[in-house]
Write a structure and sequence with these properties.
Blueprint: H1 2-20, E1 22-28, H2 33-48, E2 52-58, H3 62-74, E3 81-85, H4 89-93, E4 99-100, H5 102-108, H6 120-125, E5 136-141, E6 143-148, H7 149-154, H8 166-178, E7 183-187, H9 190-201, H10 208-211, H11 225-239, H12 253-257, E8 261-267, H13 271-277, E9 282-285, E10 303-310, H14 315-329, H15 331-341, H16 348-356, H17 359-362, H18 368-373, H19 389-404, H20 410-431
Parallel strand pairs: 1-2, 1-3, 7-8
Antiparallel strand pairs: 3-10, 4-10, 5-10, 6-8, 6-9
Helix pairs in contact: 2-15, 5-14, 15-16, 19-20
Length: 433
């Protein structure tokens, strides 16, 4: 009897112990080297305490995970945390009842939370018109320029000097082609890199109403003479074999990593994969600009994603989320993540810690993303926040792809993309009055 009592007591203790650990479900879109990073973050947090266990789950690319999260919410089985890319921000903000503002989560969880500790350009993007911070900045990135140093040497170019203007990009691309390069220049995320960031970098309006920050009645304006000129230049480069279109989203990344494409515009968050997989020395530099455009360069805009807390969860879950977010925001964790991935350090303390460590001196160019983002912004360069933005990007991809196949001129493609995109903005405005 005594033995049975001991066994029963041990079983009860183990059961209580198991119940004491609250699982926090986290759906994300980080694959490859970034998936390793996400898993390590959860593992280290879980090891730092015993009350909560964060369970990260890869749910596909950004658009796929966002769709999965929304569907799960409607089916009443949403995760506690959903990673959503920046173009989904307006949609999430206006998803009535679906999310719990991060400011509320932190306050109710008893965790000190000061939005001013984060990089202003980052917090500003995820803050609602009423001043409330809605989501937790996580893998914030921006567009940067990468180039293959070995390819530059082979073309007789200075491997320590990146082109800083678009005319220089064209000139360098021509030399790279002569040296045998089949893909002198490419870009990932055409819509983000060559229209959205391009606009803010040149302090040119992408959409009215301060690119959507000023109201739901914003309308697209990226068919201006400057935008048309840029896509005409890209079209001419494509015809000459100086620019090769490699597909939507991040499909072009592998063409740089493999050494096929010598110059590449993409996310600062690609750094982790390039550092792990590239078999050649590469460098990171600022985005090119047109030197005759007044005020250029201005600043680039946020990319990547933030963490949204879904509504309808038990209070204990929200306490766990608050503790996890506190952990993610600590200067040490943020600095380590920034240095590992190339994503922005979301707090100034993490940036300063990285700078003091000598990381930027040892890895030239890794501070480019931060320096492009911490500049003073204008109404035209703060960022782009529009409803139905995911679908608008799809439209832009569809239309600009007509340029590379020769079916449409740059002006025809951009004019059509603006018209089709504005129809979606009108629908979003009507649905959220």
């Amino acid at each position: 009897m005594k033995l049975k009592f001991v066994v029963a007591a041990m079983a009860a203790t183990l059961a209580l112990s198991a119940q004491a650990t609250t699982e926090i479900q986290w759906w994300h879109s980080m694959d490859g080297a970034l998936n390793d990073w996400v898993n390590d973050l959860a593992k280290d947090f879980n090891a730092s305490q015993s009350e909560y266990k964060v369970v990260p789950t890869y749910k596909g690319q950004y658009d796929e995970s966002m769709a999965a999260g929304i569907a799960a919410y409607r089916a009443h089985n949403a995760p506690d945390i959903l990673q959503v890319f920046e173009v989904g921000t307006a949609t999430m903000m206006y998803a009535k009842g679906a999310v719990k503002p991060v400011a509320d989560v932190m306050k109710e969880g008893g965790v000190k939370f000061d939005p001013k500790a984060y990089i202003p350009a980052v917090t500003g993007y995820y803050t609602a018109p009423n001043g409330q911070m809605m989501s937790m900045p996580f893998n914030s990135s921006t567009t940067v320029f990468y180039y293959n140093k070995d390819a530059f040497k082979a073309a007789g170019l200075d491997p320590e000097k990146a082109p800083t203007t678009w005319p220089e990009v064209v000139a360098d691309a021509a030399k790279l082609k002569i040296s045998g390069s089949t893909c002198p220049f490419t870009t990932s995320w055409m819509t983000w890199a060559q229209l959205e960031s391009f606009s803010t970098w040149h302090n040119t309006s992408y959409a009215s109403k301060s690119n959507g920050f000023g109201g739901l009645d914003a309308r697209l304006e990226f068919n201006s003479p400057l935008h048309v000129r840029h896509f005409e230049n890209l079209s001419n480069m494509a015809k000459q074999g100086l620019f090769v279109y490699k597909g939507r989203a991040s499909k072009a990344n592998s063409s740089f990593t493999s050494g096929e494409c010598a110059m590449f515009v993409g996310s600062s968050g690609s750094y982790a994969g390039f550092k792990r997989d590239a078999k050649f020395p590469f460098a990171e530099s600022t985005l090119p600009y047109y030197p005759d455009v007044p005020g250029a360069p201005q600043n680039t805009i946020i990319g990547g994603a933030s963490l949204w807390v879904m509504s309808g969860k038990p209070a204990e879950h929200y306490k766990g989320v608050a503790k996890f977010f506190e952990y993610l925001s600590s200067p040490q964790v943020q600095a380590a993540s920034h240095q590992r991935t190339g994503y922005l350090p979301i707090t100034m303390a993490a940036f300063e810690l990285t700078e003091k460590s000598g990381f930027y001196k040892k890895n030239p160019g890794t501070d480019v993303a931060v320096n492009q983002m911490i500049r003073k912004t204008t109404d035209k360069s703060r960022g782009v926040r529009l409803g139905n933005f995911v679908q608008i990007r799809q439209i832009v991809d569809e239309e600009t792809e007509q340029i590379w196949t020769g079916k449409k001129t740059a002006k025809q493609a951009l004019d059509t993309a603006v018209a089709r995109g504005n129809e979606l903005l009108v629908k979003f405005q009507a649905a959220n009055k």
